[in-house]
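Support case: user asked for a sample of complex input and structure output to validate their parser. Sending the pair below.
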Amino acid sequence: MDLGTTLFYVLALLTGVSAVGVVVTQNIVRAAAFLLFALAGVAGIFFHLGADFVGATQLLVYVGGTLVLVVFGVMLTAQGPFINLRISAVEWALAAGVALVLFGVLAIAVAPGWRTTAPQPPAVAAGDENPASSIVLGEALLGVEKATPWARRRTTQDGPLRADLPAEAQQLTQVTTTNTPAATARGRTRMVYVLPFEIVSVHLLVVLIGAAYLARAKRRRVAPEQLP
Amino acid sequence: MTEPGLEHYLILGALLFTCGVVCMATKRNAIGVLMGVELVLNGATVNFVAFARYNPVFDVEGQIFALFVIVLAAAEAAVALAIVLNFYNNHLTVDVDTAEDLKG
């Protein structure tokens, strides 16, 4: 068992146990702590899958931002000592049954036993293994195709990448271009995600304004005659 | 302990999804419900990134959509917490069972 396999099982165990802990604990502060470990474990899974930029974003935005928001919410809505928010044992049993059935259905649907050949990750040739996934993601988001020397999506039968470039620049692109199946698959017509990117950014702006408006401190209106 | 394949990641995503759904259903604290939503979204993101790794046609798309899911989850958490705080200011509790002002 190599290091990658061990790492996957450790991360999956951490994530799964923490996710179950979020559900079963009754203390909301403990649930927030379990959620922290579950989100960090998912970030580790992303790193293990080779998606380093997504993993870093998960750590920064989720663990660093969203979870802090949730903890603030927990602290700002402190419960009184006699308010009981527990659910009954019957409801627990019902929830556990539903959970087992749902997980069973989902797990059977994706279980390896139903397939004759388990899919394996595509073979990556030396020199083609994702130099930095953030560059590829940035190109896809901005739509500036082949703006960098990492123009790995071109197949060799496409001819010269850009005829107007000087010879040494073309040589630079030639070196990093390989003809693996992965590179061929990436050589298709590329999707450009400028419009979703813009929509998401405007959406974030609107959401920030709306959240600040919703959660603002209410000013109590006092009638003038009640003032001393 | 076999080499992890695509199914292992999908089963992990299914586990996160199930935990999130049960968390949403059983918690009476509104913030607990919000944590369940986060778990469900994380399960979906694990699936996106796993498919991006195992299918070279989607190697950019899976990660891009995972990024969008993360950003939209942050926005959703901000709005949901604002609503919860507003509810707490008016009702002095975060029990979702007491949120029945709109009941006819």
